[in-house]
């Protein structure tokens, strides 16, 4: 405890601002936006944000050109939602530029630990929410009944159950990262308990797509930490678990519900029609929402696939610019493989979660999950 007190006393105002942003991720969306705005304005006024961005932010010419184009396209197409979202992402990436200028190893460890604690508290609320949903549906809490409707599943302070499941997956990756890092048995036991609790919450969300990346995330981190024996044990356990699921498919909530899978193909077909209408520039963020009056299709804000939705909303030109930004990040992350292999593993794990779940949902569109993801991904900038 004395070490923790000394560490916290040594933190600068920059460290506390970054930890405040991490905390806001677990607040309701509106409060998160307020926190993002207040912190950005404070940094701009007090800390000369613009020079910090120009000096430290990687890929800035791509991301700000992309956001400028997104704003112009949204204005031309009278896409008010798109313009609002573009402004939100402008604030997000401005903060990420500030983050890259001030992140350091000690702070990064506290970001991971504080995230797991915030997720634990958030999880307590999820249990209360699950009890309320179960009671309203005529079930007991211990029936563990998962409804098919996304609005009748736990989401806590996130936009829906699937986005909450995404956040839980990313937190689980962070917990495994810390479990493999620490040599203290007491801490390892704590991380195991915490991981089991978080995994239980993933099951209660009823999000089946959140289970798939976990199968890949665990071996990624075990390989990067060079834990060959644990990797072998994991492979044996995975084979046993798959055999159990085949024998008892009801272990996975909503395993036999194919209605949402069928609806995805319908959604993607409508999105393709929208892409053909505006292939170069799209209509800005939330283009899919604008297509509903035209095609009388599924009402929603995105196309339930980040790759299709990117081309639909931003066209070939916008997608190409954003690809340049992604390429810059990949080049920087690749350097970690030899210099900081364990951090490379964590970044690869979170990227895998977002990429796999993004095949069937809009994983990187919500600002809160995007903020946490970008904090981890751009931590290659950290100083000792």
UniProtKB/TrEMBL annotation:
<feature type="transmembrane region" description="Helical">
    <location>
        <begin position="229"/>
        <end position="248"/>
    </location>
</feature>
<dbReference type="InterPro" id="IPR051533">
    <property type="entry name" value="WaaL-like"/>
</dbReference>
<protein>
    <submittedName>
        <fullName>O-antigen ligase family protein</fullName>
    </submittedName>
</protein>
<feature type="domain" description="O-antigen ligase-related">
    <location>
        <begin position="194"/>
        <end position="321"/>
    </location>
</feature>
<dbReference type="Pfam" id="PF04932">
    <property type="entry name" value="Wzy_C"/>
</dbReference>
<feature type="transmembrane region" description="Helical">
    <location>
        <begin position="62"/>
        <end position="95"/>
    </location>
</feature>
<keyword id="KW-0812">Transmembrane</keyword>
<feature type="transmembrane region" description="Helical">
    <location>
        <begin position="342"/>
        <end position="360"/>
    </location>
</feature>
<dbReference type="GO" id="GO:0016874">
    <property type="term" value="F:ligase activity"/>
</dbReference>
<keyword id="KW-1133">Transmembrane helix</keyword>
<feature type="transmembrane region" description="Helical">
    <location>
        <begin position="192"/>
        <end position="222"/>
    </location>
</feature>
<feature type="transmembrane region" description="Helical">
    <location>
        <begin position="107"/>
        <end position="128"/>
    </location>
</feature>
<feature type="transmembrane region" description="Helical">
    <location>
        <begin position="161"/>
        <end position="180"/>
    </location>
</feature>
<feature type="transmembrane region" description="Helical">
    <location>
        <begin position="311"/>
        <end position="330"/>
    </location>
</feature>
<dbReference type="InterPro" id="IPR007016">
    <property type="entry name" value="O-antigen_ligase-rel_domated"/>
</dbReference>
<keyword id="KW-0472">Membrane</keyword>
<dbReference type="GO" id="GO:0016020">
    <property type="term" value="C:membrane"/>
</dbReference>
<keyword id="KW-0436">Ligase</keyword>
<feature type="transmembrane region" description="Helical">
    <location>
        <begin position="16"/>
        <end position="42"/>
    </location>
</feature>
